[in-house]
Amino acid sequence: MTTQATDSRLLDVAIEHFSRFGIDGASTRAIAKDADTPMSSITYHFGGKEGLYLAAAERIAERMGELLGPAVAAAMRACQPGCTRAQAREALQLVLGHATSALVGADTAAMARFIVREQAEPTEAFTRIYDRLMAPMLERLSFLLRIVAGERISDLEARIRAVALFGQVLVFRVARETARRAAGWKVIGAAETEAIKTIVADHLDAVLDRLARGKRATT
Amino acid sequence: MTTQATDSRLLDVAIEHFSRFGIDGASTRAIAKDADTPMSSITYHFGGKEGLYLAAAERIAERMGELLGPAVAAAMRACQPGCTRAQAREALQLVLGHATSALVGADTAAMARFIVREQAEPTEAFTRIYDRLMAPMLERLSFLLRIVAGERISDLEARIRAVALFGQVLVFRVARETARRAAGWKVIGAAETEAIKTIVADHLDAVLDRLARGKRATT
DNA sequence: GTCTATAGTCGGATAGAC
DNA sequence: GTCTATCCGACTATAGAC
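^ Those are the sequences you sent over. The predicted structure of the assembly is below.
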C-alpha cells in the first residue's frame, strides 16, 4: 500500500474537518497536522484555506457523482420520453433505491455533513455540488413522476413531489442519530439499510399508485 | 413597544448566529454588537460563549415545543388507543401538517438550522432537543400508523415509516436551498409552504391508503 | 515540493470604573 | 447591570531556507 499523495490526504482530512466545524470553525493547522504535513503545504497546493474548501467541495461532488450517477444513467436508459408508465415506475424505483444505498449504506457521513452545512449558509461550493449532483437527480425524478401521472400534474408539482420523496431517503442520513434512536437500532448497517430501502420503495409505490390513478389533493 | 431585555435580545441574536455559523464559527463580539450591548454582558448573563449556546438551545426547545406540542396533544385527544382508523388518519395529518408549518415556515428558520446543525455534530444540546421534540412526535406518528394499518405492521416497521414520512417535511428545511432551486422559487414563503403542506399531506394520504388496505411490500 | 519561522489579525475572557 | 480597556492565545498567510 503506497502512501497517498499530500494533496489527496489533505482533501480527505479537510472534508472531515470542514464538515464537522464549518469553514470558519475548522483550522488549517489542525487539518495539516492530521494530514501529517506542514500548514504551508495548504498554501502551496490549494492557495489557502478558501481554495482547500472549494477543492474539498469539488471532490465531494465527484465522489457522490460516482455513487449516484450510474443510477440516474440507468434510469435514462430505462425510460426515454414517451416510455410507458410501468417503465417510468421501474426507473423511479431504480433511482431512489440507488440513492438510498449511496446515502444510507455507503460511508458518506462526512460528505453529507458538508453538504448540509452548505445549505444553511451556501457559499460558491454549493452551486458546484448542486449543479452536479442534486439538479440531475431531481430533474430525472420529476420528469419520471410526470410520466407516471400522465402529465396531469404541473412541472412545479412534480418537482416538489420529487424533493419530498427524496427527503424520505435523505432523513436517514441527515437525521441519522434521530432515526437510529427512534428505531431502537444499535447501528444502521447493511440489514437496517435494506429495511429502509424496502419501506422507502413501498412509500414511493403508494404515491405512484395514486398519481397513476389520478386521485389527489388540490394543489 | 418596550425595549427587549438585554439577555433576551442576546438569545435571539445568538440563535441566528449559532444556527448560521455554528458554535465555533460564531463570534461573541459579533453577537454582542448585533444585540447592541458590550461583549462582557455575555459573560455577565450567561457565563460565557458555552453558556450562551446552551441557553439558546434551551430557548429553541421551549419555543418549538410551544409550536409542536399543541399538535401532538391534539392528536392525543383525537385518537386514544382503540380509536378508529379515520380518527388516526386525521390525527396523523394534524401532526405532520403542524410539523411542516413549524419546520418550513420562515419564522422558525434560525431555530430549525440550529437543530439540523446539532444532528450533524451532536452536543449536549442535542439530547435535550431530541427528548423534548423529536421523540414524542415520532412516538406519536408510529403509534398512529399502527392503528391505521390495523396492527398488521410491527412496531419497528411503523417507526421506520414514521421517520421516512417525517423526512418529507425535514428535507424542505435541511435541503432548503436545493428545494428552492429545484422548484424554481425565489423564496420559500407562506405560499410555497402551503404548496409543500398540500403535497406532503397527499403523500401521507397515499401511504395511509395503502396501509389501510393492507397491500404492501414484504418487510 | 517540503518545511520553519514569523508577522499580523481576531477571538474569548476578565478586571475594574461607573 | 452596563461598559471600556486590555490580556493572551489561536488563527491565516507568507517569506525564505533546503
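The mean pLDDT of chain B is 92. Chain B is about 80% helix and 0% strand.

Shout if you want it in another format.
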